[in-house]
């Protein structure tokens, strides 16, 4: 079964942490494609000062030379809040049942999954790939009871299981430590601190050209 990774986010801005995580997961799970899906109106984020179009453009620049990576702008073309469940339903309708969707998320996001809109339905349309960095503890240590149950009932240790079902499983993957955050990058730019080597050169050039994240 074809495996498509789904990496959503504000990408404000996209950086090497996003890109390396996507590459490691794609390699480790045998993905055929990774779709970067910029969020237009993220329901769990404060006001985003850079436009969705500019954030999407930065994603396009960052992934241009990787044939495994594509950008998907469906959330930018949809009115209202960018709910993940709506994106997964749309992807399933487009790609059909012969494609397994793999929704990538960090353990920090999974801990709050029960606050997401229609979170109980996410596994009807996709697998969830939990991303653990080496220094993080196991997510179940601080999970709400209902998420502990979800993890217990749907956990799959064997990667091959992801290729046999198109949705419904939770798999956990450890990745290399890349302690880079978009928040930190924005703060550095705001205060004139160099962000070289934290994000691709093309992105830094775009930020400088359009005077983004400055006072």
* Sheet of most strands: 6 strands, parallel
- Rg for CA atoms: 17 Å
Shape: globular
Look at the helices and sheets and give the structural class.
alpha/beta
pLDDT < 50 stretches = none
| Strand composition percent | 15-25%
Helix content: 25-40%
> Could you tell me the number of beta strands?
6
Overall average pLDDT:
92
Terminal-residue CA separation: 48 Å
Order of helices and strands: EHEHEHEHHEHHEHH
For the largest beta sheet, what order do the strands appear in spatially? 3-2-1-4-5-6
Question: Could you characterize the architecture of this molecule?
Answer:
The protein has 215 residues and is α/β, with parallel strands linked by helices. The chain is 37% helix and 17% strand. The chain has 9 helices and 6 strands, in the order E-H-E-H-E-H-E-H-H-E-H-H-E-H-H. It has helices spanning 16-29, 52-63, 84-95, 107-110, 122-125, 145-154, 160-164, 182-190, 201-209; strands at 2-9, 33-38, 69-71, 99-106, 127-132, 170-174. The protein has a 6-stranded parallel sheet with strand order 3-2-1-4-5-6, sandwiched between helices. The protein is globular. The model has no long low-confidence stretch (mean pLDDT 92).
């Amino acid at each position: 079964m074809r495996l498509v990774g789904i990496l959503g986010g504000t990408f404000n801005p996209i950086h090497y942490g996003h890109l390396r995580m996507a590459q490691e997961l794609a390699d480790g799970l045998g993905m055929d494609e990774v779709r970067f899906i910029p969020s237009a109106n993220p329901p769990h984020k404060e006001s985003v000062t850079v436009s969705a179009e500019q954030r999407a453009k930065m994603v396009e620049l960052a992934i241009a030379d990787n044939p495994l990576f594509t950008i998907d702008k469906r959330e930018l073309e949809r009115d209202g809040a960018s709910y993940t469940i709506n994106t997964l339903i749309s992807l399933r309708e487009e790609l059909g049942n012969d494609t397994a969707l793999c929704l990538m998320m960090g353990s920090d996001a999974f801990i709050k999954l029960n606050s997401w809109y229609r979170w109980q339905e996410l596994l009807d349309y996709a697998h969830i790939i939990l991303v653990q960095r080496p220094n993080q503890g196991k997510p179940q240590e601080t999970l709400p009871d209902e998420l502990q149950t979800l993890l217990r009932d749907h956990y799959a240790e064997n990667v091959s299981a992801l290729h046999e079902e198109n949705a419904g499983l939770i798999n956990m993957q450890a990745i290399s430590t890349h302690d880079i955050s978009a928040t930190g990058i924005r703060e550095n730019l705001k205060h004139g601190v160099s962000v070289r080597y934290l994000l691709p050169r093309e992105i830094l050039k775009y930020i400088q050209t359009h005077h983004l994240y400055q006072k």
